[in-house]
Write a structure and sequence with these properties.
The protein is α/β, with parallel strands linked by helices. It has a domain at 2-176: 2-enoyl-CoA Hydratase, Chain A, domain 1. It has ten helices and nine strands. Helix 2 (76-86) links the parallel strand 3 and strand 4. 42% of the residues are buried.
Length: 252
């Protein structure tokens, strides 16, 4: 699935799904969303897969939405990708290093075990782009770390390093970059030794109390995103980003 910006390797019950657009720091375009959706749907149905290990190629996890990409199908690829991840029934381990921005951060909030590398530079740049959160992160982040910590990170769009990610509860543990993938793969294999039926049933028990809230978050985020995209604030934020200057929201 290289043409979709995704690499997949299945071994010892673990499906390694690797975001593979290193020249773009694994930024997400329509093809990426299709690739992720297909990879997760296939892994969910594959009896040889017990666990997924999600990572990025080239020293970065994911730089978020590719602002230079052409999304001819609108939000449909993203929406199908989000649904595939939300309904995925098996455990997901994530190895997150380097840049993890926007959707490249929030996709990891759906992973069950998250390890980060020392190079982590995570950010949730939604308000500063005149937008709102996505991937149901308005719910998953506060469910993982609490409302006030989540609100601070969302409202400030501040950079989050590896130490803070572990401190607030975004990540399970931090490892040197050179050890990150091996540690995450080792944990995935440890999990994969158990009966997949028990793993799936346990994940269902863990996730069931959150199901309605996740769907509600996805729906509301979609509505608010549609309102904000193309707004004067959003246009100014994107223009300033492309011009490499500070945005000016005064008077908008």
């Amino acid at each position: 699935m290289a043409e979709l910006g995704i690499k997949i390797q299945i071994e010892e019950g673990v499906a390694q799904i690797t975001l593979s657009r290193p020249a773009r720091k694994n930024a997400l375009d329509a093809a990426s969303f299709k690739g992720i959706m297909t990879a997760f749907n296939d892994a969910d149905q594959n009896p040889e897969v017990s666990v997924v290990l999600l990572s990025g190629e080239g020293g970065n996890f994911c730089s978020g939405m590719d602002l230079g990409a052409n999304f001819d199908e609108g939000s449909a690829p993203y929406e199908r990708c989000a649904e595939a991840i939300l309904k995925f029934e098996k455990p997901i381990v994530a190895a997150v290093d380097g840049i993890a921005i926007g959707g490249g951060a929030t996709i990891s909030f759906h992973c069950d075990v998250v390890y980060v590398g020392e190079s982590l530079r995570m950010r949730l740049p939604f308000v500063n782009l005149g937008l709102v959160p996505e991937f149901a992160s308005s719910y998953t982040l506060q469910a993982n770390i609490g409302y006030r910590r989540a609100a601070e990170l969302m409202f400030t769009a501040e950079w989050i390093d590896a130490t803070k990610a572990v401190e607030v509860g975004i990540a399970t543990a931090v490892y040197p970059d050179a050890e990150l993938h091996a540690k995450a793969l080792g944990k995935a294999r440890e999990i994969a030794q158990w009966p997949v039926s028990a793993l799936k049933a346990t994940k269902q028990c863990l996730k069931a109390p959150h199901a309605a809230a996740l769907q509600a978050a996805l729906k509301l985020e979609s509505e608010k995103m549609s309102q904000q995209i193309g707004s004067p604030e959003n246009v100014e934020a994107i223009t300033a980003f492309l011009q490499k200057r500070k945005p000016d929201f005064k008077g908008l």
